[in-house]
Amino acid sequence: MRYYLLLFISFCGFSQEVFKPLEQRKEIQPLKIERVLKADGHLDEAEWVKAPAVNVDFQVEPFQGRKASFSSTVKLLYNRQFLYVAAILQDSIGKNSYRAPNLKRDYAFVENDLFGIAIDGFNDKRNALVLQANAYGAQRDLLSFDDRAFDIDWDGLYRVRTHRSDSSWVAEFAIPWQTLRYPKTDGNKPQDWGINFFRVRRSSNELSVWSPHPRSMSPLRMDYAGKLTGIIPPPPTATNIRFIPYFLQVSKNSEGTEIGNSTTSELKLGGEIKWAISPTSVMDFTFNTDFAQADVDRQVNNISRFSVFFPERRQFFLENASLFSAGLAPVNEVVGGSMYIQPFFSRTIGLDQNVNPIAITAGTRFVYRSEKRNLGGIYMRQGEGDGDPFTNFLVARYSENFGKQNRIGAIVTTKSSPSNVATTGAVDAFIRFNDKFSFSGMGTMTQDSRNSQQGFAEYGQFLYKDNLVTLYWTHTVVSDDYNPEMGFVSRKNVLSNSQGVDFNVRGKWLPTFIRFWQPGVYTEVYHSLKTGNIVEQKLVSGPLWFNLQNGGILGGYIDASVQNLEEDFNPVGIRIKPGSYRYFRKGFLLASDPSAKYSASTEYGWGGFFDGSLQNVDAKFRVAPIPHLNVGLSWNWSKFEDVGVARETKEVNLLILETRMAINPRLQLIGFYQKNTTDNLNSVNMRLAWEYQPLSYVYLVFNTLNYQGMDATQQKQQSFLAKLSFLKQF
Asked: Where in the sequence is the signal peptide annotated (predicted)?
């Protein structure tokens, strides 16, 4: 049987090899010009005729190694102020058919016609600054580290404009040198940088690149990048400083027995300063920090035994987040089960236990990144909240790069207040044995002065990934006393092992509408660390899972679970007593092309749930007739039957409506409505955002929240804010 399995894998993997980087890297040398160009997407200046050009013609998806279906030409120029990049992307679908469901910044990669640039200014073949634009000029930018950790919410200062016609679309970038990071220079010595260009053509769901890489990787694997040669950038300016002050007017009204009755109005002044001390070092300062315009959290009805991980949405903490990330978290390539362990999680700063904001008086962050090492520090001073008159937060992070793409690091956090001092320390490592096989792991301990408790946690994860198969094994241990007060852990008192394997099977024998068949099997086993007993086992298999040519999914799965409760469990208010439970569930997922004007997905699951049964539906529908208008509706429905001590039958509904209207990528009105029947919650968030000049904003935000309190009475909150921020670059 093993022989036939290996033969099957070898056959399916034929012509899908993970090849090595080109021995002779592709090169392009941009032309230096004297005058400043206007980036408008038209390329009508004479300089563009003379500009060196390369072709983005290596197809990664769907047919690795073939020539791209349509020609894509990239040209480069530069002067003392800007690096200019122009992409001419041929197509035949017509000027009104390019895919862009919305015009928001940092849009979904898989939903848009887009062009991207990955720049490795230090030529270390590890890290990249990434700038992208879709066909309508919306921007997407991020920082990438080893093609494994990403600062997706980093916002670079640059200009891009696009122009669409029936035969092509054009993206023209003007990138200030202050936005880029590169070695110091005397202004006369040429430099070589790593660079790659990539294009996503959504109507055929095709990815093409300039410098080839295997499909098991992304265009951000910079050891596969080409080379930008002979460029002479200006020396980094001595005063590369961004000053971003803000003015905020907030009015709030509260009514309820729990939250009290009050009406307040407040004018706030604050801001941030970003100082690029050198090409490798950046210092940030923030005072009277405010996040009033940040996205609201999406409601979740949690029916698992794990804590829900809500992502960070506040811009100050999102920038450079990857440097301070350590542990097993959703940002990693493969989570490897349901366990998350993070010694530091920024949502613990400026929010109380009920996720209400607490004023941040001031703070600072220092980041140093180089080819050999990275280090960073954060200090934040929080005002009165959670019963303390003030709280100080301190984070220190260090990592050392060694070998080709290996790293070892440490992180220490301290949360100190008059009532307690809590400290967390961790050591972590990432080892890439080769292009396919890697290891990551961490050991961490916590201690606090209130009760002198010490706790520990650790994890190790092996990951193998090539064009055909992905395998992982993840081991975690979390003690009952592990309490990272500045971090997050999804479950305590557990020893867990998670394994998984899935295949990426392609072949002409598959129907033409299927890109690849992805069967997989995943297991999780959790033991109580105190008793050694098994507290949960899960086996999930998706033997019929198909990824479609248009980006949609057609899949079915089965889920066998064993739950051994050692104490009461109360999902959505249903009490389930301790005991042993075995049940079996089935489900399927149908998802259409996510880039289409009309898209939908439906996941339906049914079967046992502890001592009863459960049906659940997670459905999403989106209408985007034009990129300037987007309406999305999601519905989560759960029906419990004969569950728990009271043999309850209960239905729970969560409805979310999102709308986005955009005049252009810089002026948008966003609406967000949530209704949750679990606690009779209704919330509305309306936000007008105008980027009147790059990274300078006007926000008008209205929020209303109604929910049922613990005493069964309605609690009501309303707020309105107007915020003006202004970026000045020195």
From this structure: none
pLDDT tier, 384 (very low <50, low <70, confident <90, very high otherwise): confident
| Distance set, CA 709 to CA 255, 259, 386, 387, 569 (Å) | 12, 9, 19, 21, 21
Q: What is the CA 479 to chain-centroid distance, rounded?
A: 28
Q: Which of the 8 DSSP states describes residue 297? A: P
Q: How many residues does the chain have?
A: 730
| pLDDT at residue number 75 | 97
Percent of the chain exceeding pLDDT 90 equals 60
d(CA 132, CA 198): 9
**DSSP codes joined into one string, 48-78:** HHHS-EEE--EEEESSTTSBPSS-EEEEEEE
Cα-based distances in Å from 310 to 320, 347, 687: 18, 9, 21
Burial annotation 546-581 (CB, 10 A radius, 16+ → b, else e): bbbbbbbbbbebebbbbbbbeeebebbebebeeeeb
CA distance 564 to 54: 61
Residue 8 CB partners (closer than 8 Å, separation 6+): none
* Separation in Å, CA 192 to CA 74, 156, 182, 211, 348: 18, 22, 10, 16, 42
- Residue 453, SS3? coil
Matching residue, tokens 């490798």: 280
Please write down the long-range contacts of 604-608, taking CB distance under 8 Å and 24 or more positions apart.
Answer: 605/559, 607/559, 607/583, 608/561, 608/582, 608/583, 608/584
Total-model pTM: 0.83
Residue type, 193: W
The reply to whether omega before 62 is within 30° of 0 (cis) is yes
